[in-house]
Amino acid sequence: MRVTAATSQSATAPGGGGISTAGVAGSDGLRRARAEAGRWAPALAILLALLIVAATAEIVLDGALGHSPLIPKSPAIASWLEGIGERLGYRVFLIAIIVFTCAYAGLLVLARGVSKRWAIVLVGALHAIVFAGPILLSTDVFSYIAYARMGVEHGINPYLHGPLAIAHDPVYHYVGQDWKHVATAYGPLYTLLSYPLAPLGLKGALWGMKLEALLASVGTLALTWRCACARGLDPVPALLAVGANPLYILYGLGGAHNDLIMMLLMMAAVSLTFAGRDAPAAAAVVAGALVKATVAALLPFMILSRRRLAPILGALAALAVGALAGYAAFGIHGIDVVAALNRDAAFVSTDSFATEIAHLFGKPGVFPIDHDLLKGALVLIVLHLLWRTWRGYDWIAASGWTLLAISVTSTWLLAWYILWPLPLAVVTRDRRLLAATLAVQALFIVHQTAPIFAPVP
User: Fold this and answer.
1) Is residue 14 included in any domain, yes or no?
2) What does R_g of the chain's alpha carbons equal in angstroms?
3) 420 closest CA partner among 292, 325, 314, 299
4) Could you tell me if 127 and 253 are in contact, meaning their C-beta atoms sit under 8 angstroms apart?
5) 236 in any annotated domain
6) C-beta of residue 191 within 8 angstroms of C-beta of residue 337
7) What is the pTM of this model?
8) Are strands 18-20 and 10-12 parallel, antiparallel or unpaired?
9) From the CB of residue 408, how many other CB atoms can be counted at a distance below 10 Å?
């Protein structure tokens, strides 16, 4: 076979080494492709950001009209937005979620090319839109207000009684049906933080809860940025991964969930460890656990990693102060965290991985033996991560894996639970944690949006 010179000859260097002209051409082509991508990447990033803002605005504006199963029954706090959108239906919501998620995924790919200013502008715009709108997708905030009004306005211990005890109070009509008989499972620190909002009336307390969530989110994102810089990581991808996340914005911030306060204290603890302040860092973890007990999972990893007495002393001091305050305000039930956790662990949600796996195996649901198996699996995972941390593995990554394992093995899974490991995942060098966290979130969104792809009967 005869091969033409154009395809077979090489340009030979004086030393005799051959450099393929095809290789040179390929290298030039690659450089041109990268240069071309660099030109259109900013425009694409702007387009994706606009899609995220548009999807968020669509949900908020349509949700402001109320009368939707996706928007909990609520006092009219976003009436100035009425008349702009239409009643929020499932189809519009699911399409908006899909658009938001796809644009978010694309934005993460281009995140390194996004300027700090525009990243902050995008995240700030999303926060402002959600803050101005109604409560989204959850009635939990009304439970928060109910527990606060029980203690302040009616002198009833929220750790002994559910909102049914104040059935005559205006907030009762907005509490979720599943929680009217259930005493609070939140830590005494959060309950005390909510008490000053009770005298403001229902609308005032609702705006207070929204403001608390907004400030907690801003603080969490600021600390995430700071921790990323401390680790030598680019803070822009970290900010976008958390602050432009669809579950974080629509479910976490949109529902004004107290998980944001817990995450604020969690990231404060991480930031303090980077500054070498081990005792305050451990105290911050305990404070977070007195808001929501889950974040206590960080403490053993922190102690194992630091191998000093300071975090133990800091944790014990904070625990003693919190326990005394909780006991003084609410009695022994205010500090009985184990009982509250055992009660909540028995709940089963349709979105949990345990429920879906049970259905795959032809089971109608989760049985008691399944709870035990899941708890056993979680214990094994935590023990393995503790061993790895002792051997030198990053304690922040180990903590993130633990929080992710807690959410995956829980039979009561809600969207904001799978946000817990996200700030940790973006400040650790183990990229597998971020990939796993985003994968779990993607599976949750797929499960939520599956009805839109179901064949019409």
Assistant:
1) no
2) 25
3) 292
4) yes
5) yes
6) no
7) 0.87
8) antiparallel
9) 20
